[in-house]
Amino acid sequence: MKQVITFGEIMMRLSPPLNYRLVQTNNLEVNYGGGDANVAASVARLGLPAAHVTCFPDNELGYAAAQSFQRYGVSMEHTVFRGDRLGLYFLEVGASMRASKIVYDRFDSAFAKLQPAWFDWSNILSNGRWLHWTGITPAISASAAQACKEAIQEARRRGITVSADVNYRRNLWQYGKKAQDVMPELVAGCDVVVCTEGDAEDLFGITPRVDAANRFVSMAEQLMQRFPQIKQVIATERETLSASHNRLKGVLFNGTDYIETPAYDIVPIVDRIGGGDAFIGGFIYGSLTYPTEQEALTFGVAASALKHTVHGDVNLMTAAEVEPVMQGNTSGRLLR
Amino acid sequence: MKQVITFGEIMMRLSPPLNYRLVQTNNLEVNYGGGDANVAASVARLGLPAAHVTCFPDNELGYAAAQSFQRYGVSMEHTVFRGDRLGLYFLEVGASMRASKIVYDRFDSAFAKLQPAWFDWSNILSNGRWLHWTGITPAISASAAQACKEAIQEARRRGITVSADVNYRRNLWQYGKKAQDVMPELVAGCDVVVCTEGDAEDLFGITPRVDAANRFVSMAEQLMQRFPQIKQVIATERETLSASHNRLKGVLFNGTDYIETPAYDIVPIVDRIGGGDAFIGGFIYGSLTYPTEQEALTFGVAASALKHTVHGDVNLMTAAEVEPVMQGNTSGRLLR
Amino acid sequence: MKQVITFGEIMMRLSPPLNYRLVQTNNLEVNYGGGDANVAASVARLGLPAAHVTCFPDNELGYAAAQSFQRYGVSMEHTVFRGDRLGLYFLEVGASMRASKIVYDRFDSAFAKLQPAWFDWSNILSNGRWLHWTGITPAISASAAQACKEAIQEARRRGITVSADVNYRRNLWQYGKKAQDVMPELVAGCDVVVCTEGDAEDLFGITPRVDAANRFVSMAEQLMQRFPQIKQVIATERETLSASHNRLKGVLFNGTDYIETPAYDIVPIVDRIGGGDAFIGGFIYGSLTYPTEQEALTFGVAASALKHTVHGDVNLMTAAEVEPVMQGNTSGRLLR
Amino acid sequence: MKQVITFGEIMMRLSPPLNYRLVQTNNLEVNYGGGDANVAASVARLGLPAAHVTCFPDNELGYAAAQSFQRYGVSMEHTVFRGDRLGLYFLEVGASMRASKIVYDRFDSAFAKLQPAWFDWSNILSNGRWLHWTGITPAISASAAQACKEAIQEARRRGITVSADVNYRRNLWQYGKKAQDVMPELVAGCDVVVCTEGDAEDLFGITPRVDAANRFVSMAEQLMQRFPQIKQVIATERETLSASHNRLKGVLFNGTDYIETPAYDIVPIVDRIGGGDAFIGGFIYGSLTYPTEQEALTFGVAASALKHTVHGDVNLMTAAEVEPVMQGNTSGRLLR
Amino acid sequence: MKQVITFGEIMMRLSPPLNYRLVQTNNLEVNYGGGDANVAASVARLGLPAAHVTCFPDNELGYAAAQSFQRYGVSMEHTVFRGDRLGLYFLEVGASMRASKIVYDRFDSAFAKLQPAWFDWSNILSNGRWLHWTGITPAISASAAQACKEAIQEARRRGITVSADVNYRRNLWQYGKKAQDVMPELVAGCDVVVCTEGDAEDLFGITPRVDAANRFVSMAEQLMQRFPQIKQVIATERETLSASHNRLKGVLFNGTDYIETPAYDIVPIVDRIGGGDAFIGGFIYGSLTYPTEQEALTFGVAASALKHTVHGDVNLMTAAEVEPVMQGNTSGRLLR
Amino acid sequence: MKQVITFGEIMMRLSPPLNYRLVQTNNLEVNYGGGDANVAASVARLGLPAAHVTCFPDNELGYAAAQSFQRYGVSMEHTVFRGDRLGLYFLEVGASMRASKIVYDRFDSAFAKLQPAWFDWSNILSNGRWLHWTGITPAISASAAQACKEAIQEARRRGITVSADVNYRRNLWQYGKKAQDVMPELVAGCDVVVCTEGDAEDLFGITPRVDAANRFVSMAEQLMQRFPQIKQVIATERETLSASHNRLKGVLFNGTDYIETPAYDIVPIVDRIGGGDAFIGGFIYGSLTYPTEQEALTFGVAASALKHTVHGDVNLMTAAEVEPVMQGNTSGRLLR
Fold first, then answer.
1. Which domain holds residue E241?
2. This prediction's pTM
């Protein structure tokens, strides 16, 4: 079967155990993750072939990062090992009213310095059925943005479904271009877009109409008008009651219908990082597996909810484990 | 003082730390437990003499398992060290809507292959005041069922109170006999039976009368009619709000009166395994210590609630620690 | 800038990881803390100069304890290294209805056996702007009480603000004097007093008037009448829903106005020890930084709430981290 | 490039940390390994494509085991997920005069119960350049022996090099056939055989001639006479000074020449398990990479020596790390 | 079978992991041990019934200490739970030229404050075959010395073998009596005495004769002359090459013959604490099991050597594990 | 007393536990260290006032690094918190013939981007008695080299002793200047220089005379001729037998006399990083404390040998602990 293929940076995440702070511990737990790679890993664990395309330094850190995703069944055969450093970030995990906190150290990574020519998209995508990318990739460097564009173009040529999590992070855009200038061309090539109202406003100047009955639908309509290739706009709506307690639901607009899922109560949260990526991984899996958009969307949100109960960036749930939660069984009764 | 004596298999439990999954960790925590042995350990820690009777392989794993219970003050002097392997199971601990999950690997254990003749019940029970067993033991093998029967018969001869947790697990019955054929003879010898409505239906075809005011009472009445030796039917009623939040109360029918306890809210759950065994251990202790059934039952449920806040299969609470909770003090205020 | 100076014993705290009990673990986590030293550490981490004055045995344990506070930026330059042993205590961390439990082993510590003459308060306080002590110090030994008295007197001479957490612990007073005899003279020298209604009754025989609209105010008024130096009486009011869930607010009476803060819901509690000290540390910082008592008090309670989400006795939050919570942002939303 | 393909059982290894014994720890470290799979992993990490063929239970343990080897770059695409249990063993690590000690629990594993028909060797080996197996596989069950035979036959048909580590373990042969009856037919199909003098005597009744100048050569000559397909007989000679200190050299006879390597002093030993497999993996890599048998053999021994300094069954050294040691640089000088 | 009975204090030992120092770690490993209790545990694990008599505080620390020895099969039924604190010590483990270092915190322990009347030696020893004590016990307090004396007297009355490890530690004798005044009366009641030349000189003023061919024999002869009850004087001779490398042999004089064992090279040392106690435990076991003194002594030294490879104070080796080392097999070859 | 002051970068070191490799672990241990800061920490722990001057990013990582040294008693009051990232490196610890391996990730650190003007050397050194720097500092960036030069000049002006560890690392010099151009001017200002023959040749083109009786002396003579301010040239001579076993001695030439120390055998090595810095810290302490150069040098080497037995970059030995080793007591006998 052909692969779901993702492209983007994978970072090493270093976090104190439990709720310890960096100033008080000498012990860090390592995870490797990236907004797009997490989607590939999620899809692979759910049971569909997946590959991730990235660039790592040619050293033990690069090998460790690649092997971490290989472990979860993601094909890393297209990895380019060149450059100096692995991007990394430090995470302190909060609780109750204390927010989790990230210190990034990702500039000048091997990925940021990749050359577009290192990636032969025609070959890579020859085995693809879906391409997913996030707004973080074009934010990292001009060459990353260029590689992303080439991937999308090749996918379009081949009629491969393209999805994007637009995921606007202002701080990342530091190489001289603005997200507002770069993103439209990339998003224009997408069939599925994950986009919140905030992202839509920041990136595309799109705001829901004042009189909109449903603000998300209003935003999505405008987005689809601007980018006619888009067939689905999706998002999660997250209610953040505390660092330990969130409520999550999924929304989708397909140009005609608005669909939403029940809200899932998540308490306690074990690890919130990668929750959005698990949603997308679940949605892609659901779209390729279930007949209805409602099922795909609910599968995505159930997968995301479950991700919050798992350590690490990657959703380690199988399809058989997501299904009962998708069907509303959230009692967590012991399985013998 | 004479002992509370239990009989059954003890397994090694292997679980990833915290909420890690097996595919992502190289670290497993070991606990030893068994539905009956946990009762003995509970009773011993509460302060009454207790012994457990079992069979272990004659190797380091068997020694470790025996020593684990010896540590908690359970006499293991009747342990038979023979056979090849220790039964074991792997536990992934869930959270929120993610259920905890068990993978068993217990077939062909030393206990399953025991010979009834290895156990001299007359000698063993000469020091007994109470015998407890669970429905897991006769499910394991014909010889385990036979040994269990002999123990019950000897206890009856000696006038020792016999209790059983009928605990029906369909998957376990694989040696060619049905629970429905084996259990009645064993339960017939019991004074106290822990039995849910589901168990009663599955094992004995007993269902509450349609018009029953109290379904539990209706079931218990029929059970006591069928097995006249039974003097008390007890159970816990567990409301599973999530893997991290349960609500628990105890119920008892003694042929005349129905007694129930207040419900205890348990959030967060530290370790749910052994919660039922802690209830029984607490109830046995309570029955031997307190004048009223209400106290015995409430002590049992308070003990069980507290067990959920302790790691491992065994309830490590002393009587002095259970008492305030039994009396309704569930504020958890720091004790200096 | 001049220092906030505290005086008192620092103990080694030994606790099993997570919710393990002492009988089941071979692993203890070490923290160093003391009711007054925690205040100094809190103030230092918030960004103001702080020093702690204490006495340690001249061995590796004393060095480790001193270095632990040095690490958090507390000046330990006045530490006296003399005597035999470091006071210590063992802590089992509860959950839900199970209370956390402390076993103290602090008698005959180096601090208990200090000589008042070892501390040259004139020199020590020459660099001070605030002196804080707790009712634990005069409880430990006659000489500790004497040293405390000398410190207060010197602070008064120098016009340095003096605060006390009266913190009455009956079990501690074992050297032949009663708290009721010792404390009044010491409290008489204080500008700010942390005192609950229970403490006021136990120590000073003060009870709120029967007809009092606000019991705390009534108690505080009487306290200020008795000890005219006092300008502010403060306290936290803690609602203990369970060992994992508390609700906290702060109250203050300044002779004229009663001020209170919103209540902060704390769930789950990561580590409750030092929560009161964090409140005082935050209040001192707030008093020295903010123009209004309301802000100082709210800052203190926000700091205390956050402390409950941090492992160890010491509040490791910076002022920038407390501020949003003080302003009501308790959503715990991930900070990138 | 075509793959080095191995076939055999992978077990979960559970070992207490450091030199702890099973009776004193509640903590086990997990590794997955097997005599043949370790060779594949070794080859993959050295830089050549490798695949392992095996059978796992279709549960979290099987997934974890498969993913563990996937992580190291071994293709697990031919894994069959069927059956009930994963074989496992417990390892206590010795030191000085205390031997490391293994307790096996591997009977009735999914691998033991495999059906030969589950493996389509024609397809599997179509991508192979080398097939390796060990004497453990035919010892496990008749069906495993049959599958092994079919693999060898197919490899012969395709002209793929076949190597075997005859590795005789008396205790394993429990399914009714003797190694002496089963092994000859399998060894007859091999080009390279790892065989000690003890194995040769036990399995084939071959003993060095009394007057032999070199006992290994004498044994190897007879072995090659008996099995004319064999082109190389190799072995390591291990001097066991203590559990913490071994000395290792490699020997080879190719029908004409006897080759040996320098002896490598290994002190301290970090983990001895898999040392022999690392030798074979290194020798296969060396044979496929270096022009001379001397280099291949020395590479193999250097790889094995380095394996002893790495935790786990698998040799995690790259070719670039083995090369200096192969060239005699054993000073272990810090690499910046 | 009757018990080997020991009497003395058990302390909690707290040590940083690996070679960490106290000032740099927040993690301590707990072991419980005592010079005499270690002997009982050693004997129990070797396979003979053993009991230890001691006094613990009636709190979680006392329970944990008692349960730790119960786990290893030592009967703790005579434990008295009274008093305030558990003695403890901190251990930093050295390596190479860095010595391991102990900080004691054992004064005023529950054991030090025991009342002799709490121990009914007639009852306790009614089940005894051997009584062992160490010179540490009478050093702790006058009442401990008195209890020790009463135990010896009762053992003499019953014809039970008495052994003592005189083990002189100057720093411990702080209650107003000198070892030189107390010990002779106690040693006079012993059949077997563990005594080095240094101890003999310090305690009894006995020095080997200047012209002695064998200094140990000369010392032992004088000791036996002074205390005619003594039948055997034994000791280990330890060559301390470094903190990681010792060499050990055993010596014995029985009034007629001098016996010594081969020297055992121990490198690396895993944990040196309890090495002497393991020797005594092994010697007692050997004396009760083997026909010759040579065997008993060699068993003792082999047991001691093995103890150095095991973490914790207690020798966790079974008789079957000591035997090969006793017979000279120190190669540490892997046992499958 | 005035301070020993050091200047340079502090990095976060991340290393897998024990001998694990990065590709196989999810757990990293954190230490903070730097060639010069380690000297300050060493001096502080030995008992003399010390301060370190550096630049950290203004985030949790910078605070943690600063606090780590504060903990060991190093004054960090001159730390500048500015810039983006903390330099870091990953360390895999080898054993036997496997070398330890470092992956650096230190470019563009906050320290590399410091502005010389941020450091007011006149103020900083007003409290100094000794200034120490290493050749790593001027290698990092032009501005770091400039700051280093200004510090040396100010020290010269104030008559403060200046020492340098020239420590040439070719890979580090990447900002456009060569070490050979930058270092001479800096070394010219030094009184004490740590320099190996290799460094002397690489940096200054100085080679021992062909006919030199003592190559070190010949090199040192030429060095002192070139830089007349130098009064002592010192070095350690390290024999690397394996990653686990080194032999170390110290050498010194003072223009007249050649002094050397006995060689110290270090086996096993616990942590080799910082061994050279411990030598310098010990030598500085020795020079300020002992009357003779022989004592200072031997103290330095003994300190360095002991450092190898301690985890982390920093030598955690007190003067009282170094002294016996300095005097030749390397038996590592247990200290009670």
1. 3-321
2. 0.97
